[in-house]
Prior knowledge:
Ferric Hydroxamate Uptake Protein, Chain A, domain 1, 16-stranded antiparallel β-sheet, 2 helices, globular, disordered N terminus
Amino acid sequence: KIIVLFTILFVACHAFAQEKISGYVxxxxxxxxxxxVSVTLLRNGKPLKFTRSKEDGTFLIPIVQKQTGDxxxxxxxxxxxxxxxxxxxxxxxxxxxxxxxxLKEVQVKGSRITGxxxxxxxxxxxxxxxxxxxxxxxxxxxxxxxxxxxRINYNGKSINRFTVEGLDLTGGKYNQLEENIKAKDVKKAExxxxxxxxxxxxxxxxxxxxxxxxxxKDSARDKLMPxxxxxxxxxxxxxVGGSINIMQIxxxxxxxxxxxxxxxxxxxxxxxxxxxxxxxxxxxxxxxxWISVPSLDAPIDEERLRFNISxxxxxxxxxxxxxxxxxxxxxxxxRTVTRQERENMSIYDLGGEAPTxxxxxxxxxxxxDAFNLQWENKVNKAEHYGNESISLSAAQSDGLSNINDTLxxxxxxxxxxxxxxxxxxxxxxxxxxxxxxxxxxxxxxADLYVNEERNRIRTNLxxxxxxxxxxxxxFHWIQEYRMSIDLNNxxxxxxxxxxxxxxxxxxxxxxxTPYWQYKTETFRMSFxxxxxxxxxxxxxxxxxxxSPYLYLYKKLDFRRELTIYTGYSTGTG
Length: 573
């Protein structure tokens, strides 16, 4: 059954004041304005955003929403550090008191150097003997916040690229580097705003991305740096575990070997999460989820769960080749075994002589295995950029539930994924041409066992997609034309006892999207009609849709903006 959805978004016209924190910094005695003062927004005592006062002493911090308890902290040489509550609905005035001091010996060190788009922090000024890892030092930087999974935010925005000595060793899984680079080995952190890592697009295509690069001390560069963290849990029973990490970080070659075994309930999968990416590759397809594996169910905080045993092994290698080309290889394996035993008792008063008591005893065992292998090569020249990759992943989820020793349910889902992709970008004087392609294959089996009965669904999916894009930028005008085709063939076979039912479905999607934009400093107008053609072989249907939209933006003054958007969207499903 095909359902066609029509959505109309009418014109929305509104003027609004973007929420900002503004004010000025002054000398508490002379009331003279102070320039170049470091102003940090603190939320719950932690730095959230950072700026510096201008020549006239004023400062401005854009923010999504103010919260009760937000504080501003100002620091400046020759003045006492000052904390001031954020004023509601008016400018915040920070008055700083001067302080006199005498130094027998003066040593000048630069802790923060500001360039046009790059801010360098001298990490040796932030690190001390209590810091174990790079993560401990980064948490102290103004404007830097690190989430539980290791994701780094700068001024409230997630970074898009993380490198050490200019190389991305982990392919965006930088939590491994945060945890294993020692605090005593780091020299500086560079925060690059409006980051554009593609040389061919530098000074031509601007971004709002933020990147961070870590530089090591000369004594640590190109040296083997082993880290061993063993532990013992004393109790009944007692357990041992820990991790070992060996890395060698240089400017042209980097390697890292990592192994960890955990019995404390720690989520080792955090280290393998991709937190940043700028590859711009087409996304592969994914298998549909027919059934789900039993999951852990406990009415307590996640931090208190201690049911799992995990082990992780990973190898990362990257090498810089000729003309700034890079070749990266990564392999990792993660295994998690989770066991849980629960018992529920319910008492019902049905009006009889005695209440009715029901008891449910549930034992769960969940085993997860995942192996990933990836090869990636990048070419980064002034005229063109290229990126190609091959990845292989094999995984299995296996969940067993035993209820009251009378009902047994098991769900087992093994799957295999193989994908290749290529991206090429050619930049000319006033235009650019890009081509992206991907081809991937996926195989999966979903087994459901209820006592002795088995139901099985086998799925095979072949997918390929190709996209061609041309863009021209001249004066205030931008014109762009995108064409793409996507082929997705899925075959699913359902087995129950001796019965088998198989279905094959091929879907073809073609898109053509022209785009025009006129842009000045205070005005922007964009228009794009999106044409999409879809062919479904089961059922046999061909659909043609169009989704145009018009966008207008006008900056009225310092505090007011006018936005008008109207569009017509058609979707299939």
